[in-house]
Amino acid sequence: MRDYIIRRVLLLIPNLFILATLTFFLARVLPGDVALGLVAEDGSVIDQEAVLVIRERLGLDDPMPIQYARWMLQLLQGDLGKSDVSDLSVVHIVAETAEVTFLLAILSVIIGAAMAIPFGILSAMMRGRWPDQVIRTFSAVFLALPNFWLGILLLLALVTWFSWSPPIFQETFLDAPVKQFQRLILPAVAIGTSFAAVATRLTRSTMLEVLNQDYIRTARAKGLFPNRVIIRHALPNAVLPIITLSALLFAGLLNGAVVLERIFALPGMGVEIVTATSERDFQLLQGLVLVLGAFVMVWMLLIDLVYVALDKRIQLE
Amino acid sequence: MITATNNPELSPTRANRTGSAAWRIMRRHPTGAVGLAITILILLFILSAGILTPHKYDRTLSGKAAPMMSRGFDDELLVLGGDELGRDILTRLQHAGRTSFVIGLAAPLLGVTLGTIIGIVSAYRGGVVDLLVQRVVDVLISLPGLVLAMAVTLALGFSVWGVIIALSLNVVGGSSRVVRSHALTQSQLEYVQAARALGASDLRIIFRHLLPNSMAVSLVLFTVGVGAAITAEAGLSFLGLGVQPPTPSWGNMLTFAQQYFRFGAHIAVIPGLTIAIVVFAINLVGDSLRDILDPHLRGRG
Amino acid sequence: MMKPQITSTPTAVALLVMTLAAFAVIVSCGGEDPTATPVPAQPTATQAPAPTEAPAPTEAPEPTAAPEPTAAMAPDSDGKRGGALIRGVSRTLRAWDYNTEAVWFAPQSLQRHYSNLVRFDPADGTTIIPDLATEWAIADDAAGINFTIRDGVQFHDGQGLTLEDIKWTFERSKSPPEGERYPRLLALQSITDITIIDDNNITIAYENPNAEFIQNFAAAWGIVFAQHVMEQEGGMNGPDRVVGTGPFIIDEAEMEEFVTSRNNPDYFLDAPDGDPFPYLDEMTTVALSDVEARIAAIQTGRIDIASFDPAEFAPAVGALNSIGDSVRMEISPLAGINYLSMNANGPPFDDLKARRAAYLLFDRLRMQQLESLPTGEFASVPTGFFGTVDPFIDEIPDIWEVSKDTREEALAEGQALAEELGLDGFEMVVGSRSFFQELAQLAAQVYADAGWEVTLNVGDSAANAELIQNANFEMSMSTPNVVLPSVSAFLLEQYLPGGREANAAPPPDKIYDLLTELQGATDPVDALAATREIQKVMREEWIPVVPMGKQVGSSELVANYVQDRPGALGQWFNLHTWTDVWIDENSPRK
Predict the structure, then answer these.
(1) Contacts of B138 in chain A (CB under 8 A)
(2) What is the helix, strand, coil percentage profile of chain C, to 5?
(3) Is A37 in Cβ contact with C461 (below 8 Å)?
(4) Inter-chain touch A130–C10, beta carbons under 8 Å
């Protein structure tokens, strides 16, 4: 067990190295660079002199290996660098934007789980009857809706029928939890439903497996209240796979965040990544993607370790 | 964690009795049959581009956002109305369907094929190769696919192929992981050990034994990927990084229609609903296929 | 083993529910029965500016003091004071010192904290009116301006404004610090000398005679900074460094998100009620990049004004139609046009005849038809090379080759020219930024009608910039907005070498002579004559671009908002400091 943990943690080091390398080349394959991105913003003007000045200032005219070495050295010193456009430190930008993105992801998981667990259990218990069929069909439907479209439709529906739209000012969750919740709820529902679609099926199949186990059958045969059986035995077994799934799908949840943050004007990491990409702000793009990737890696590791600790049935490799 | 068993319904020995087998499968999996029927209908609809309507997909026929069943400048009938540039939505849906289906099929095909090869080789070779390959896979899995796809489409210049390659990268990581764990159990099995003892070459073992046995898993991963790729293309389009005009795709039709939503919601609802129905149908097929091929994969994303 | 039991019934039910939901949205959001013919909306139809309303830009400023803006206003200001106005825009700012940016987002959020020496009258966008300077006089040789600065002006931090601040500001624009660049102030680099005459007078001299040079000081970027603030450690590194003499004091701001400002009680301009402007207690600009989100916000009263880019004209009209009476629309004309650049670095457009063929074959009436909105409004109107600043815009249907009367002839002449050059069925690559893909696709159709085959190459800004830089195209879609409302500025900024059209054909030498004539003209009649001659040469001997249409302008949906003077918001490149704006009791923020 301890060896396994040590091994997994040590593996993070090569992973991070590969991640850093990948992010570097991910930025460099983009056509053009920040000089063009900045200058091109307002039309077709290409001020050659300005382009050269910007390139020299940012070291973009150096050969690729030198730029790569500089990026790696910088990382080794624990420095993510500064945005090429705004000159703000990447760490600062991450600190400003991370809250929204992670709150959105977490809220989506909560909404998804809140839908998935009861519906999944109901579906399993009513297996083959009409509630099961309706739930399964709806989960397939929600999986099929592009989540940005769902977000826009939700917004339109609320505006049209209830004359309500989310608050427009960004505040931290601690300062104004209600407002921030109102801001996040629509995009979270849009992302959460597609998560729920997957999680409902998972809950259902896990529940079916559990319900088929001998001790539950025995308990049921003895005439114990089905509710108690479910809460005591079946529920804990259903929650575990959903936690695992949330780890596996976390990167996917962030996909949804990238698109929905834009629609709902949420100042999160997704919006920042899209802007950095279109402006060719290499330093910022590399920094943000690295942080996001590293976070997901660590998150997956933690979930894995929790899973191993909780589920003794898992065979260590 | 994930294993596959050979399912008698699809084992090669019964392959020649496909007719009756297909009927039995359809009887047992009515949702899959419905999904398949919808998919085939949509495919027929797409393939009839140029036959069903007399219009060109890139030609403005009417004012912007013309209502359904309206007439164009030269009295052309626009059954589903005109889009944001007054082009026939019905015709565009068909042509866009080609793009979206090509992306929907090619991206997971490419991704799963690569993932399968990587997974099998990684599992079979083990050791340092496995360790290194799995590190790259770790990284691929931990990155939001859209971010990766954004960079790759930009680099490859917004073409359909650019989008295909970009979206296939999303699939490689996950599918190689699943195939690897499947292949790991396979390579422990007696027949592989026996083949190895008999002196079969690595390539032979991989191509004769491991690859065919992973096909079921790969096929399931592929069907799941089709729907995902079609919605992912829509997401990329929304960010302005999908297939670029004048090539239509369901995703860019939906995106460009947003601005004219309030002149006539049909121009955004029709492509959106099309995507939803198609992905829904394909997912139904995928679910049934999963049930048929491998009950243990059920419900695992 | 589990067997799925779903039958096809729930599938059908689900599809039905989805369809119903979608149609519910159609019915309630589309505003009208989708099968009904759209009726033009009254408010917008009347407000789309006709070409005749275009201001005459070449009118030389009077070398005397213009009337105080307060003179024309009603003396009654009951109920005007107080309240907070929130304006939703597509983007806010990316730098605290917005001189470093070429984009127009930044002034919308920051300009109200500053003053200029003079400014454009928001009512027409071209007349020069006083700001810090109460009077100004242009030198006889038109190569210098004397400004008389008002007394007792204070910066927001309490320090008094001195002429040294003004001198420091424009010396900084003239020669920016190492590594800095002020893309919208390049014209100020021709300043030769700044002299403080006495306590109230400062003279700024520049290289070439130019009667319109004063416009540079009125433009959105020509703001006056506080030297003592700018020279602090770190420079313009945060909102606390946004210190000016403007009507609003910055309160709270977050880059890319919002800027909130409060009333400056010591502002130097007085309202008719005797107290200083502005009426508002608070003014906020907030970024809502998604159009639907912006519309939703004004529909639910979260914002008072929703501002739309020129390219967002269609959704703005659509929103107005579906929201109804609670909002109205205002349109600010822009000095902007849509045109196709021609790559004159190689064949065929290095040849004037080929450019002329392209110019004649572009059927502008067809373009206008293709671009018209469902409400019947035109998203753009025919134009020459100078958009709204063209003083002869009324004559355009006569002088312009593809008008109703001459359309057939012009198209035939274009065809003949194309055939002569072997350009019939010409295949060309047209580049465009994704943002303008609609216009590019329509342009492709117009050329397809003429038998030319167009391959579109659409990419994001930087990718498109690379395409243009590598001259890897025949034509490219542009929709520029010019900062200064004048023909000479348009020429310099846009078409002449050193301007944006890096790949345009070089002008005939005459153009330079005519430009000098135009700039030196202190008499408006001479200026008009020179302008007419420039246009003739451009059409006959140069043809740098193919004009497609003049943008209607930027549009705003407004609710609960009133301003004292007539005219549009004029917020784009023209100075609008939000002084005489007030909100009525209907606003929840009054």
Answers:
(1) 11, 15, 18, 297
(2) 35, 20, 45
(3) yes
(4) yes
Measured in degrees and rounded to the nearest 5, phi and psi for residue C29 equal -95, -30
Report CA dihedral (C106, C111, C117, C123) to the nearest 10 degrees: 100
Q: C215 and C188 in contact (C-beta within 8 Å)?
A: no
Distance CA C320, CA C325 (A): 8
| CA nearest neighbour of A196 among A75, A85, A311, A111 | A111
Per residue in C122-141, pLDDT tens?
777 788 999 999 999 999 88
Bridge partners, C328 (sequence order): C558
Say if CB B235 and CB A255 are below 8 A apart.
Answer: yes
Nearest-angstrom CA–CA distance, C134 and C141: 22
In angstroms, rounded to a whole number, what is the distance separating the alpha carbons of residues B260 and B85? 10
Half-sphere exposure of B272 (CA within 13 A, CB side): 29
**Is B14 near chain C, with CB under 8 Å?**
no
First to last CA, chain A: 10
Please tell me which chains touch C, using 3 or more CB pairs under 8 Å as the contact test: A, B
Q: What is the chain A residue with the closest CA to C184? A: A42
The confidence score (pLDDT) of residue B38 equals 93
- Pick the residue of A143, A159, A262, A281 with the most B CBs within 10 A to test the interface with B by mutation: A143
H or E element: which one contains B172?
Answer: helix B160-188
Asked if C175 reaches chain B (Cβ–Cβ under 8 Å), the answer is: no
Best mutation target, A45, A145, A153, to test chain C (most C CBs within 10 A) = A45
Q: DSSP state, B250? A: H
The answer, for C31 touching chain A at a CB cutoff of 8 Å, is no
Q: Read off the pLDDT of residues B102-158 as tens digits, 9 standing for 90 and up.
A: 999 999 999 999 999 999 888 888 888 888 898 888 888 888 888 888 889 888 888
Residues B202, A295: Cα–Cα separation, whole Å: 38
**What is the DSSP annotation of C203-250?**
EEEESS--TTTTHHHHSTT-BPP-HHHHTSTTSS-SGGG---SSSEEE
Lowest-pLDDT range of A27-41, C101-115, C180-194? A27-41
Q: What is the pLDDT of residues A36-63, one digit of tens each?
A: 776 665 544 556 677 777 788 788 888 8
Asked if A277 lies within 8 A of B150 by C-beta distance, the reply is: yes
Residues with Cβ < 8 Å from B211, sequence gap 6 or more?
A: B116, B120
- Please report which confidence band the pLDDT of residue C371 belongs to, taking 50, 70 and 90 as the band edges: confident
For C524, counting Cβ atoms within 10 Å of its Cβ (0-12 exposed, 13-18 middle, 19+ buried), the class is middle
Q: Which residues of B touch C435 (CB under 8 A)?
A: 240
**Quick one: average pLDDT of C163-169?**
96
Inter-chain contact B64–C31, Cβ cutoff 8 Å?
A: no
Which residues fall within 8 angstroms of residue C444, CB to CB, at 6 or more apart?
A: B58, B246, C430, C454, C456
Q: Looking at the complex, does the CB of residue C500 fall below 8 Å from at least one CB of chain A?
A: yes
* Predicted model pTM: 0.85
Q: Distance from A15 to chain C by nearest Cα, in Å?
A: 31
Instruction: Name the residue facing B276 among A144, A156, A262 (closest C-beta).
Output: A144
Task: Specify which residues C332 forms β-bridges with.
Answer: C554
State CA A21 to chain mean position distance: 22
What is the spatial distance between Cα A288 and Cα A277, in angstroms, rounded to a whole number? 11
The reply to whether C442 touches chain B by the CB within 8 Å rule is yes
Which ipTM was obtained for this model?
0.84
Q: Which chain C residue has the Cα nearest residue A276?
A: C462
The interface residues of chain C toward chain B in range 12-41, judged by CB-CB distance below 8 A, are 14-15, 18-19, 22-23, 25-26, 29-31, 34-38
Give SS3 for C273: coil
